[in-house]
Amino acid sequence: MSSSGTSSFSSFKNIEFILGSLLTGGICLLTLLSYFLVPDGGEAIDLLHRLSRPFTDPAHPFGTDPLGRDVLARLIVGGRISLIVGALSVAGAVVIGVVMGLISGYYRGFWDMVVMRFADVQLALPFILMAITFIAIIGGGLANTIILLVISQWVQYARLVRGSVLALREREFILSARAIGVKDRSILFRHLLPNLLGPVVVLMTLNVANNILLESSLTFLGLGVDPMIPSWGGMLADGRTYLQNAWWISVFPGLALLLTVLGLNLLGDWLRDKLDPTGKTTQ
Amino acid sequence: MAEFLFKRLLQAIFVVLAVTLIVAFAVRLTGDPALMLAQGAGSVTEDDLVRIRAALGLNEPFLVQYFNFIKGMVTFNFGRSFMGGTPVATLIAKALPATLSLALASLAVSVTISIPLGIAAAVSRGKWLDQLIRILSLVGLSFPNFWLAIMLVLFFSIFLGWLPPSGMTDFSSFIMPATTMGIILTATNVRLVRTTMLEILQAQYVMVARSKGVSEWVVLYKHALRNCAIPLVTYFGLQFGGLLGGIVVVERVFNWPGMGTLAFDAVASRDYPVLQAVICILSFLIVFVNLLVDTAYGFIDPRIRRE
Question: Complex ipTM, two decimals?
Answer without folding.
Answer: 0.88
